[in-house]
């Protein structure tokens, strides 16, 4: 299926990341829960394939630590007469609102202290800095996934790098009566930090602190994977999985580093584990299909592809990437299905209509291809895009 290994890495300045389910489970005290009994364990990794001595892996404390000078700056700010009267969560909001006015997007993953020192970084760096300042002032920070317009940043060594986006809620202190009502129903005051909101952003799931930390390690591991440093990527993935071993991007990348080191058996076990424990299956299925196809395991590959074709998932990024990949391999029927799944959830992304039209035309669906290009023209904002689509449309209409 997909020869491109998908994962979320850097986020652009409209930001963040996908995925996790944050829900409360309740069970009758008289009925034992089968969730814990039946939950599979993460497969044993093949540690001997990797050199673990080369680099010190940043700890959680390294990620969120601020320098003494930086914490002094925070304290001086919140000690101002007009700021000191505010609740703590509003103090964090005011500090960051002023501190980040000239924040420079550099597309780099920085620790919180580095992001503040450099006045730059990617959106994950922004979220981490927010988290660090909130932690310093004793404020609860909650993160929410935002589904935004997809942006394919680069494809290198068969690795697709895409953007993703989160926003941060800063909550006032909770009292006993509020503590059990959840974030949105407690009646607590909050401030929202969404540094680069997009016109088409859609609210996604709330993610807890563990997954947020896992996402930070995911970004760092993705950098290492992109650079070809599998030893460092492996160690960062281990760190991330210690916070959330059911986080799909970490599982996917762990399988990838094992496959690239030649251990396809362990890679396959990891894919199978991921498909059992996570709801986010698109990348896992597409990369597992690639592994099985590479092995010549045709029947199993066909079964995995059938699952992918039938899958319904509202997170749009992966559908677009595997649709593009199917198009490049001239698997036009699959490309049409994947791109339609993508557009069902992201109907404003004009480039996908052009890709869909290519697949439809190759399948002999001239009328559908014409309609797709017309939709792309209506949505395209840039004259260059509009002119390209109009030229393709004129050519199709002459056929």
TrEMBL record:
Keywords assigned: Signal
Q: Which domain of life is it from?
A: Bacteria
Q: Where does the chain cross the membrane?
A: none
Q: Which InterPro entries match?
A: TPR-like_helical_dom_sf, TPR_rpt
Give the residue range of the signal peptide. Answer: 1-26
In its UniProt entry, what is this protein called?
Tetratricopeptide repeat protein
Q: Which organism is it from?
A: Shewanella eurypsychrophilus
């Amino acid at each position: 299926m997909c020869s491109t290994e998908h994962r979320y890495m850097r986020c652009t300045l409209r930001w963040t990341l996908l995925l996790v389910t944050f829900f409360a489970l309740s069970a009758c005290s008289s009925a034992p829960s089968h969730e814990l009994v039946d939950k599979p364990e993460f497969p044993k990794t093949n540690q001997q394939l990797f050199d673990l001595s080369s680099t010190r892996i940043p700890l959680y404390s390294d990620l969120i630590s601020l320098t003494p000078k930086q914490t002094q700056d925070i304290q001086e700010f919140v000690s101002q007469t007009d700021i000191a009267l505010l609740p703590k969560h509003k103090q964090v909001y005011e500090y960051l609102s002023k501190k980040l006015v000239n924040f420079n997007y550099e597309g780099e993953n920085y620790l919180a202290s580095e992001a503040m020192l450099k006045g730059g970084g990617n959106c994950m760096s922004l979220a981490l800095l927010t988290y660090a300042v909130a932690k310093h002032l004793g404020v609860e920070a909650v993160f929410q996934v935002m589904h935004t317009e997809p942006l394919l940043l680069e494809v290198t060594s068969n690795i697709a790098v895409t953007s993703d986006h989160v926003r941060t809620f800063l909550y006032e202190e909770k009292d006993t009566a509020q503590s059990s009502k959840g974030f949105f129903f407690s009646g607590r005051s909050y401030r929202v930090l969404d540094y680069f909101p997009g016109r088409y952003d859609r609210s996604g799931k709330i993610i807890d602190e563990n997954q947020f930390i896992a996402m930070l390690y995911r970004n760092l591991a993705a950098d290492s994977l992109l650079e070809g440093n599998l030893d460092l990527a492996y160690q960062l993935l281990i760190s991330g999985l210690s916070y959330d071993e059911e986080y799909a991007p970490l599982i996917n990348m762990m399988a990838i580093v094992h496959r690239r080191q030649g251990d396809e058996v362990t890679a396959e076990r990891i894919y199978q584990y991921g498909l059992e424990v996570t709801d986010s299956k698109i990348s896992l299925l597409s990369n597992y299909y690639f592994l099985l196809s590479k092995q010549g395991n045709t029947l199993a590959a066909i079964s995995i592809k059938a699952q992918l074709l039938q899958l319904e998932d509202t997170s749009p990024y992966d559908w677009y990437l595997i649709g593009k990949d199917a198009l490049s391999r001239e698997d036009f029927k699959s490309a049409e299905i994947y791109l339609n799944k993508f557009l069902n959830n992201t109907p404003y992304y004009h480039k996908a209509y052009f890709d869909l039209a290519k697949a439809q035309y190759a399948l002999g669906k001239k009328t559908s291809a014409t309609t797709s290009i017309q939709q792309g023209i209506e949505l395209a904002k840039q004259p260059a895009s509009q002119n390209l689509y109009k030229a393709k449309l004129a050519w199709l209409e002459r056929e």
